[in-house]
Amino acid sequence: MNNVLELINVKKSYGNFDAIHGINLKIKEGSYCCLLGPSGCGKTSLLRMIAGHEEISEGEIYLGSSRLNELPPSKRGTSMMFQSYALFPHLKVIDNVSFALKIMGVSREKRNKTALKYVEMVQMQGYEDRFPDQLSGGQKQRIALARALITKPSVLLLDEPLSALDPALRVLMRTELKQMQRELNITFIHVTHSQEEALALASIAVVMNEGKVEQIDNPLTIFNKPKSAFVSEFVGGHNIISIGKKLFSLRTDNILLEHISSKIKNNAEKMNISDIEFQGSSVKIILNNSKYKHFNVTMSDSEFFSKDLKIRDEVSCSWNLSNLHELQ
Prior knowledge:
Elements: E1 5-14, E2 17-27, E3 32-36, H1 43-51, E4 58-63, E5 66-67, E6 78-81, H2 93-97, H3 99-103, H4 108-121, H5 137-149, E7 155-159, H6 167-184, E8 187-192, H7 195-201, E9 204-209, E10 212-217, H8 219-224, H9 229-235, E11 238-243, E12 246-251, E13 256-259, E14 269-279, E15 282-288, E16 295-300, H10 301-307, E17 314-318, E18 325-326
Helix pairs in contact: 4-5
């Protein structure tokens, strides 16, 4: 069966306020799709409508040939992993994971046997008899994932699943989620406001803003060829350049930065360094002048130290015109 998830002109209104403005989206089976955007852009509302936890005001949602609009969450072929993980505090790990099977009337022996397989899948064997308050944040996340997967959904819906984890664990779990999605070959739809997370995970990314889709593309295209100023600025790694009546984006690592010399190139901008941020192997330099108030340049740490740049230095900024990408 071809389990393509399709949203057709999906809208969500609260009284006179439109939270989602007629979204059309088609997600191929086996995709890792990230819904990316700032807080309040509508990405979680969209996820909850797919799951059946929020009603659709207008439009249709299909999974394969099945229309999901009126179906309850348990009949949709989807499973949702909540941001809070929503584990039952009074149930042991094994009972949390097997809870959906219990509701379906599966015998205790059979559901526990199945649950153990999913506990092993998320590398939590040995923790079956613990309660949620005896688990770390990362362990709770793994158990919530096992509980969501035990019903064998066609689509797994993840609402900011990594946001509660520390940075190192977030990177580890990101890798494990991607590997698990490949092995299971089911569709993952993952809500995040982290550009780095979306670029690392997604085979297809949907950038949202104020209830509308700004761009749907693979992460490489979204980063290198943003369609709008919003995408360019939100996804990051770009400056917005105005030439005549047109706007262009310019990657921050495609800029030449030099100390001011007596002779400045025709296309160069004189700027002052207002701040410097060390980011491990790279350095972000923040510049300004009368035209650009917050202009970013990224360079390797070795290049930065070789140039001996300091805050308040006056510098020359230049770029190759072929590296400009015109925005719509």
